Each structure stands twice: as structure tokens, then as C-alpha cells.
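Example 3.2
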Amino acid sequence: MAMNLENLIERPFVKFSPSLWGDYGFHSSSIDDQVAEAYAKEIEVLKEQTRATLLQTIASGSSSDVAQKIRFINLLQRLGISYHFEKEIDDQLRHIYTHPVHMNDLETVAIQFRVMRKHGYNISTDIFSNFVDENGKFRDTSDVKGLLSLYEASYVRTRSDDEVLEGVTAFAETRLRSALPNLKPNSTLEKLVTHALDQPFHTGLPRVETRFFISVYQEEDESSRNDELLRFAKLDFNLLQMLHKQELSEVSRWWKDLNLIATLPYARDRAVECYFWALGVYFQPQYSKARIMLAKNISIVSIVDDTFDAYGTVEELEVYTDVIQRWDINEMNRLPNYMKISFKAMLDLFENDEKDLSKEGRSYAVQHGRERMKELVRCYFTESKWFSNEGHQPAFAEYLKNAFATSAYYLLSTISCYTLKSADEQAFNWLMKNPKILEAGVTICRLIDDIATFDGEKERGQVTTGIECYMKEYGVSLEKAMEKFQELADLALKDLNEGLLQPTPVSSEILLRIFNLTCIIFVTYQHNQDGYTCPEKVLKPHIIGLLVDPLPL
């Protein structure tokens, strides 16, 4: 009888596009052990050769040695193999940071600035003093490689760099765009410039950037290409891809067994995209369990989100919210049938995570995750009341405070630290206080998401959006509100960058999870498209590149 009543209720039912991945057989992938072993063997040899090059001593005061070292480290990062040498690279960068040398080459200086900052070294903007005029403005130059490096470096700046670097992104971008038509078509440089203007390296996803760079680097002239490193990078990419495919097949089977899409047809079927997000947070082999856990949790959050946004009535959602706050399976009978399904899936997942992590004495991590999930649901409910026709339009500050939580990034940042050895109880307590770096990441997530999903939400009949709250309160046009949101996101990126700089309250391992989670937003919502809801254009090519096609050797 209950089910019939549910069917009679008028709902905000949204028809999302189905999964793109039915024919890809993701749930049945396995590693070819022989191939993997052969790759691993060859990688070990290449790794030792690379380590030897990396550890070559820098001659005292030699700017050419420093330049060579910086460029080599940058190349390892761009090829996606620097993770094998984290300690060695850090030792080298610390030495360069504490023994500064003077360099006159814009390309190398800008690479040094970007690489140092990303590694937490607060290198001064003074290193650009040779390239600015007496008014502190960058001098015009026809050095395209230098401009490209400067453009890339501009994305790591903090608010305190603005005296020297304010306007540098626009300066470099304008000159690169005017130089682009004169570059040799299909040359390496043309491809690198076009790509950077589309997606700066600093805010890109490591594996996506690696896949792109390898494809360009292999077309370099033999004289300027390191074939050993190229071989190393390709083998390593393919070996990791085998592991990632295997993990995705585990997540896909779990998702298929839950059968949520058949029982909850209103929800987005995005398990593959959720795994892609987890892969964006960490790709290295030691994070295998972490990726699987995070992908499953993002999938459940997506179902809960759609229950609030695309199906539940305010009355049902009030009970759903209360039942989740109580976190007790015995409360389940208070829910309509369709809500029982997602509630039980959520409880089961958290219980499994807790069981798994308690073997390492880390069950406290899941307790923090549970509190974040309850907070998320409370804020979803606040939003659903606003978004219903009876709801009021909140003040922008009130909207934003709630919307930070509904971005789900407080929760996902917490879950992404579940398995990290450096994330002890103290680190989780720090995380739960929403430190500045986390607030910056959450701000970017919320604002970029709001810009990209605005049209879709209006089409789906959403009454209140963040952009409209801002327009109403400040009496501005849609265009001006969008500009303001972008401006606030740009400021938040500076704060995010600042949060990486030493000394830091927690390990860089934790900080990079927050940073990478934010970069997922830049990629998923690129060019103001909602790549999660409509993955066809935005995410599909990336997923095929990372999880379907190996690199030709």
C-alpha cells in the first residue's frame, strides 16, 4: 500500500542521462601477471638510472647545474614518474632553496617558482626581478617558452604575491594567444600552449596531465627528448592503468550488486565517474584501498544528493534527515521504501569501512566521516526547504555557509584521509575545524559548481540558486554575479596555494588530498559545463585515456 501512495506523490523527478559505460565491461577486468611482471622489471632498471641522474651533485654556485636540475625534476613531474623519487626530489629542492643562485632565463626561473611552491617552499617573487621594469610590470618579450612557463607559474601564487604577480596571468595569456597563430602548426610548443590556455598544469589532474604530456613529448626532436625517461613513463603509466582498471572493476561489481539504479531510477548512474574522481585524489599504487573506499563513498553521496535534489518531497526528506542523524538501522521503518534502500546502503558502507580500518586501529577516521555525512544531510535538507516553492530566498552569506557543506567537500576531504598513515586523530581534529586550506578548496568547489550548474538547475525548476541569491542581494546582472563568483574562486585558489607552504600543521600528504580534490572541480566543470551530470563531452575522453586505452609502447 505504501508503495502505491509513493507513486501518487507529485515529485521533482529529473531524467538524468544513463551511464555511458555499459559496453566497456569495467566490472570484469583482471591484470595480466606476465605483462605486469615484465613491465615492473624494466621499470626497476630505468628507475635506478633516473635516480642516478637526479642525485648528480650541483656544483657550488653553478646556475647551469641548478637550471638543469630544475628542468629535470619538472620533466619527471610532467611525465608522471616523480612519485618514485619523492625524497630525492625534496632533498634537491631544499638544497636549491637554501643555496639560491641567480638565473637569467625566464622559462627556467618560472619553472623553479612553480615547482618550489607546489612542494611547499615559499620561494620569493624576487626571482622575477630581472624580468620586470621600474614600475614592477613584466617587460614585453617574444620568448614563447618563457611566457608559457610564466603563465603556468602564475597559478601557484598567493595573495601576498600580488605586488609582483598581480595581472601576470592576463599578461602572459594575452601574449600567448597572440603568438599562437604564428607557432608551427601541430608542433610540440603549439600543443603545449593550446593545452595550458585550456587547462593550466597546476590545476589539472595528475594522470590526465601525464597522459597528455607523454603524447606530446614523444613527438619532440630526438635531440631534445630523453628516450629512457619516455619509455619509463609509458611503462609506468600502463602498469598503473592495469591496477586502476582492476580497482574500477571492484567498484563496478559492488555498484552492480547494490542494484541501486534499477531500484532508484531517479538517481545518476555515475560509479565510473566516481572512481575517476577518486583517481584524481591519488593515483599512486599505495593508495589502492583508499581509492576504492573513496569511490564507493562518492557513489553513495551522489545517490543521497539526488534523493534530495531530484525526487524526495520536503516531508519525506525531513524524516530521512532525522533517521540519518540517529544512524540506527532500527529507525529504517519510518522511511518510504525507496529511502530505505539508500539508507541501508549508506550504513553498510560505513560499517564495512569501519571494520576494515579498525584492523589498523583507525576506526576513529570513520567516526569523523559519519559526523560529516550527518552534517551534509542536515544542510541538504535546509537547501531542499529553500528550493521548494514555499521556501524563502536566503541572504547570500546564509546560502554560502550552508552551500559549503552541500558541496560534499568537507565530507570527501575527510574520507580521502581515512587510510593515510599521516592522518592520525590529531590531523582529523584539525580537519574537522575546517582550516583555511579546506575552506579555500570548498569555496572553489561551491562557486565553480554553481556557475556550471546554473542553467541545468533552472531548467529543472530549482527556485533558489546561489547566483540568484547574490543577484537579488546586490542588485546585479547574471553576468556580473557570474564574474563575482569567478573572482572569489580565483582568490580562493591563492589561499589554497598558501595552505601548501611550509611550515604546515599537517603532512603534505593530507594537504595534497584537499588540493587534488579541488582540481577535480576545475576539470569536471571546465568551460562552465557540468561534466558529472553530463559526462559525455568533459569526462568521457579522460576516462577512456586513463582507464580504457593503454599507451602504445
